[in-house]
Amino acid sequence: MFPFVLEKAGSAEAAIAAAAAGARYIAGGTTLVDLMRDEVERPERLVDINALPLSDIRADGEDLVIGALARMSDVATHPEVGRLQPIIAESLIEGASPQLRNMASMGGNLLQRCRCPYFRMLDAACNKRDPGSGCAAIDGLNAGNAILGTSDHCVATHPSDVAVALVALGATMRVRGSDGERSFAVEDLFRLPGDTPHLEHTLTPGELILDIRVPGGPYGRRARYLKVRDRASYEFALVSAAVALDVEEGLIRSSRIAVGGVGTKPWRLRACETALAGKPADRSSFEAAARLATEGVRPLSHNHYKAELLPRTIVRALEMAGDVA
Question: What Gene Ontology molecular function terms does this protein carry (predicted)?
């Protein structure tokens, strides 16, 4: 480990000022501390934001509002989450071990770094860790890497499970920086790698996530999260799907579908959603729509299986959602 300075922020303003001056936020630290141990990340200054009043979980009408510092375990077991958006609890439980859920914050979960193995190998080329060095995964061991949203500079998947559910549900987030507050869709937090894969999100220096708002509506009643992985215990997704249906008299009025494990960011499948509109809520409709999910995929040498697994996962998730009373 290397030397660094740790300070505690007593207010959001103090935290933002420290971060704008180059400090890094730390809350649960479940990703950052690991990366510091491996010397993948070497921040000189950390600001502890755990004392900030950003851990509230509440209903606002039919909307669900989740503070950025709320722990994953608290969100997963909160009665309002279970009542309004149980898919969020489902994705959180699937997303981490109980120990990690007890520590990790919701904001930190969204901002966690990629899990491409080469990112943590200091002797391997990785444009995320060392811009301009290359991407060892493209011609290396890439069975777990992305097939959507990739570039010639990066093929790493985004690791968050709950981010997939939040993107599917059209959640928004509120952030504050030195220039004031702004709100935007959670989907717009994530950047495609392009030729700058080290730039992973759209926050400006010092911006602090305050809360996440999940809009209410009919989707909450028929929504499921399905995660396919190498083992039943805690593991990152090979393919995952968050789906939500609005069904009336057997017909799909509208739907929301996002997938994980296959994209360089949580991947919303609007073409699949459009294809389902007005169709019967049955396997035939689900299969026809799911075939559109593979448009634009770029499989690598070891992950062609994801192009087959992706539509199958979507179909099963839609069947699960359709079975919800």
Answer: FAD binding; oxidoreductase activity
> Of 181, 117, 161, 155, which is closest to residue 298 (Cα–Cα)?
155
Domains of the chain, by residue range, sit at 5-50, 220-322
Q: What is the pTM of this model?
A: 0.96
- Other CB atoms within a 10 A radius of the CB of residue 300 amount to 20
- State the average pLDDT over residues 106-123: 95
Chain segment 63-101, per-residue pLDDT in tens: 999 999 999 999 999 999 999 999 999 999 999 888 999
Residue 72, classed as helix, strand or coil, is helix
Helix (H) or strand (E) holding 154: none
Amino acid at 186: V
SS3 of 152, please? coil
Class of domain 220-322: alpha beta
What kind of fold does domain 5-50 have according to CATH? 3.30.43
Residue 316's alpha-carbon distances to 9, 243, 288, in angstroms, are: 45, 10, 13
SS3 assignment, position 63:
strand
Over residues 266-307, the pLDDT tens digits come to: 999 999 999 999 999 999 999 999 999 999 999 999 999 999
Q: Which amino acid is at 28?
A: G
What pairs with residue 148 in β-bridges? Answer: 263
